[in-house]
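Lab meeting prep.
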Amino acid sequence: MKYLLFIILVFLGCGESSTTEIPAKANVEKVIANGLENSYNFAVTINSDETGCDQYADWWEVIKADGTLVYRRILFHSHPSEQPFTRLGGGVSILKDDKVYIRAHLNNKGYGGDVFVGSIKDGFTLATTVPEFSKDIESLKPLPNGCAF
């Protein structure tokens, strides 16, 4: 009886190994910040699964621990042959002790990659846990207006 069940499962395809697709992500790999209180400059390094304008990291952002979007740096084009890449953004209005999260967004998949956390005072490291921020943040301005290339 077990042999018959095995044959039926193999025949139906249940005995075949399956491949699991790894979801595309935009991962923050490094964050450097400097400047003056309420006007910090950030250099954010992103490694993302980019194929061109159909799939690319379209922004990185700074979010306070309470879920407030503080700053969003729009990325105007794809970077499929420039991985990882670093983009600067400035005028980030936070205090040196404010705990913030830095994350990137993939145009067709949203959030989900590695996120950094920290403060200007203590520096930034890979977050081991990330709060469940409001889904409304994704629709707040500024937003990209297309992809140049």
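Slide two material, second protein:
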Amino acid sequence: MIFRSVVAVIAGCAIFAVSAGALFALSGQDAHGEASVPFMVLAVVYGVAFALLGGYVSGWIASRAPFTHGLIVAGILALGAGISLIVTVSKGAIWSQVTALTAMAPAAALGGYLRARTSRHAKKADVVDSSC
């Protein structure tokens, strides 16, 4: 079970990290540089969506304690953003780190929560179906 949990958290983090890396690489935008407001809005919406997906997938792969796995993904995301913020604070723009801390990390936790709710409803439905 520990191995599955580790894989689940790595997968959840990878979904967020790879998608973020792809967005910045394909757009040519520096993650620590100034950006236009439309790009920042796009990046935040995109980041929240992939953080949510990462938390959800982490909970799905783990198959137990999905909310806890989403919280762990959120914590790792927040830790990375916090370290990046400390390193970058006087050397560049910090919008990406601040939004990762305030919107994307909570979205990863929400993804785990949504998976927990989905899996609970699925188990209840299975119990109802088996009694028919």
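Talking points for slide two:
Confidence is low (pLDDT under 50) at residues 125-132.
The radius of gyration is 17 Å.
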